[in-house]
What we know:
- By secondary structure, the protein is mainly alpha-helical.
- It is built from four helices and no strands.
- It has helices at 8-30, 36-45, 50-72, 76-99.
- Helix 1 (8-30) packs across helix 3, helix 1 (8-30) crosses helix 4 and helix 3 (50-72) packs antiparallel against helix 4 (76-99).
- It is elongated, with a radius of gyration of 15 Å.
Amino acid sequence: MIVKKDSIALGLILGLFAPLLGIVFFKMYKFSVFSFKETFQFMMYEPGFKTLSVALSLSLLLNALLFTIYINTNKDNTAKGIFITTLIYGLIVLSIKTFM
């Protein structure tokens, strides 16, 4: 297991940084020939933000993995924190896909 502590704050921290790590993995897999700066410039200036929303959606899979691990080990408070950040990221992705 990652950390044995059971708190909502730990879940919020893990839930915040796991998708960022997922975006880095997405960049390394899909845009390996470009620098980080070039990749993120493309994601921000692309019409409709399609690549950005795909990267964010796929990066939420890491949160799902963490959530499953903490639920199965009965660390419910940490799982709640991860779930809260997943909802926030999900709303951001939904608003990017809907309004931009």
